[in-house]
């Protein structure tokens, strides 16, 4: 085989965005090595520039028709492009909000950024992985980097405890997931590429259904751990509470997006013979996640634990799109994750800023915050109300699209449960907003009474302010002007070959009319 033929088969240009991220990682480490402690003034911006460059490279891959590379190991289709963009953007925003937090803890910022970029790299490869070995290596790159970030504050016993718990449960889930992949490998007669596995099992002369169901259960257990679905959620509240807050922000968006990208690709490509079975399992996970996540969140006293259970509930909502199994369902998942990125990261940015200024994350300590910090109160209120699905914010249109897709597919029970649990979630989100805004001056908490003077000129505070404003604008505008995001989500699904066999609910896509007095789903182009 000539070099030209080998290069054509490898088609390495499809991983140009990941190549840019690798170069960015090396640049951060080399600059830190040469410059030393003062590198913290430069390295975050090198990292953010590299990640944004990777997103630009992804944009130029949108119309690429030759998407399969590395002998079938990686697929740079439109769906993977969107998910890789979400993961890279979540890392860039997280780095922006973490500068002051990490510097104040006295640990190395460049090392933290290096580990986070490594996790991003694992998530991006996982989003397009089309082969068993690549899936597992990408998943472990993401997972091991996440364990390291969770225990990054090594002087904090809570961070150590969170890392140990995450490591032990994560290692168990990886072993279970690997066993499921090994069963797939054996049942298919030694195939590792997902489409080849499905073909081999469809052509098998013997009945493989029982073994396939076992492989499915183990594979879903590994995915459910990654997306924090009940009952594989036990690590989430403790890890969220004990970990550095920027790490939690990344795990709640970047890691979750990678898990859903894996779920779509693995279920649709490798398990077409037992579609009903995996729909049933994910339905059970979605119901449990929506109910338990929202109900237990009602009793929380810590903002980080509240957002942990909120994250579990949000995973349940996103799974509705996966269960629907239609093009509209997958589009609604992509759209919801796009808007979830900013409203969730914005919420965590507010928690970081409040903890930097007061040293606490207890919900009761937010009492009367409006009178001391109007910007923080406004951003946190908008992000929480959007997570709850209050119109006309981005979260409302995300949930409307998910419920619309499920209703058209006949999943009436899931839609009704989703609506009920959404109403429950609004209660605990509004409780925080009310505490910040409505309290009288004499009911102000001790932390707010002793609130320090607001100074944005301190080192690392300006990027945090930029994150707050960016999240506020994105969460507000993405709701009012959501049609471009609808088009992006729909296009990512219609351009993806593996989803072309998905039954279509409607040949027309939903467009949302944004007139002041109406919020209306109508048929449009």
Helix and strand topology:
Elements: H1 3-10, H2 16-35, H3 43-60, E1 68-69, E2 74-75, H4 78-105, H5 109-128, H6 132-150, H7 157-187, H8 194-202, H9 209-226, H10 235-242, H11 245-270, H12 275-297, H13 303-324, H14 327-358, H15 374-388, H16 394-408, H17 412-437, H18 446-449, H19 461-480, H20 483-494, E3 509-513, E4 520-524
Antiparallel strand pairs: 1-2, 3-4
Task: Describe this structure in a few short sentences.
By secondary structure, this protein is an all-alpha fold. It contains 20 helices and 4 strands. It has a two-stranded antiparallel ribbon.
Helix/strand-derived category reads: mainly alpha
Distance between the termini: 47 Å
The count of helical stretches stands at: 20
Mean pLDDT value? 88
Residues in helices, as a percent range = over 70%
| Biggest β-sheet strands, sense, barrel | 2 strands, antiparallel
> Rough shape?
globular
| Count of strand segments | 4
SSE pattern, N- to C-terminal = HHHEEHHHHHHHHHHHHHHHHHEE
Radius of gyration (Å): 22 Å
Question: Ranges with pLDDT <50 over ≥5 residues?
Answer: 502-525
Strand order of the largest sheet: 1-2
Strand content is under 5%
Membrane topology: Multi-pass membrane protein
Subunit structure: NDH-1 can be composed of about 15 different subunits; different subcomplexes with different compositions have been identified which probably have different functions.
Pfam family, one: Ndh2_N
InterPro entries: NADH-Q_OxRdtase_suN/2 (IPR010096), ND/Mrp_TM (IPR001750), Ndh2_N (IPR045693)
